[in-house]
Amino acid sequence: MKVPSPHAWPRNVAEAESIQDRLRPLVVVESGGWNPRALRHVAGLDVAYAKGSDRLAAAVVVLDAATLEVVENVSVIGRAAFDYVPGLFAFRELPALVEALERLATVPDLLVCDGQGIAHPRRFGLACHVGILTGLPSIGVAKQPLVGTYEAPADERGSWSSLVDGGEIVGRVLRTQPGVKPVFVSVGHRIDLDVACDVVLRLCPSYRLPETTRHSDHLSRQALKA
């Protein structure tokens, strides 16, 4: 698939923040009539880092949305493209992730990122950025919150509570399996929060994390070992 390049990769914090400020107003936090039940292919994106190094492996795994079987996978070995700066973490991983996406023969209908969407200090996490770059609907599913406060949801699968930051609802704390830790879901681009949570539950038939994340995490770690 082709990923357009609306900006050059930043060289410093000021350039990175300027890119976020320019692209943030383009984020669409509604589905616009898009029907998640018509999903055919959904892709998981994840990055693994070599211990004590800036070496990384970016992985994209495309699943059949109905069966959750792997349709295609791509991994790219590279190095972190930006210093570690809170709120700008996406710039470390995006060049390698974009390269992996461009190697895909299958264009997914939805991207699921192991990270944040608008539940981010600058309201522009990795899921927002990759959604804007590709033009595809995208969701952030994180293991931990980056911002906000919340009440613990009930123990039943599908229970949720709002993730609130500065008086704004920026995501949901979603229980994907009974009695296990919740995940933190936020909109990336071209999807609303209700639909995002519905899709995440469909992607979590047996485990806490979506199958997209589980497969892409495994592939990125295996790529580093290889």
Task: Write the topology of this structure.
Blueprint: H1 13-23, E1 41-49, E2 55-64, E3 70-79, H2 90-102, E4 110-113, H3 126-134, E5 138-142, E6 160-165, E7 168-174, E8 183-189, H4 193-202, H5 211-225
Parallel strand pairs: 1-4, 4-5
Antiparallel strand pairs: 1-2, 2-3, 5-8, 6-7, 7-8
Tell me what you see in this structure.
The chain is an alpha+beta fold and 226 residues long. The chain has one domain: archaeoglobus fulgidus dsm 4304 fold (2-Layer Sandwich). Helix content is 26%, strand content 26%. It has 5 helices and 8 strands, in the order H-E-E-E-H-E-H-E-E-E-E-H-H. The chain has helices spanning 13-23, 90-102, 126-134, 193-202, 211-225, and strands at 41-49, 55-64, 70-79, 110-113, 138-142, 160-165, 168-174, 183-189. The chain has an 8-stranded mixed beta sheet with strand order 3-2-1-4-5-8-7-6, with helices on both faces. A hairpin with a 5-residue loop joins strand 1 (41-49) and strand 2 (55-64).
Classify the oligomer: single chain
What does the overall shape look like?
globular
Number of strands: 8
- CATH architecture title: 2-Layer Sandwich
Report strand order across the widest sheet.
Answer: 3-2-1-4-5-8-7-6
Taking all residues together, what is the mean pLDDT?
Answer: 95
Contiguous low-pLDDT stretches (5 residues minimum) are none
Number of helices: 5
- Supply the CATH superfamily name: archaeoglobus fulgidus dsm 4304 superfamily
> Per DSSP, what share of the residues sits in E-state strands of 2 or more residues?
25-35%
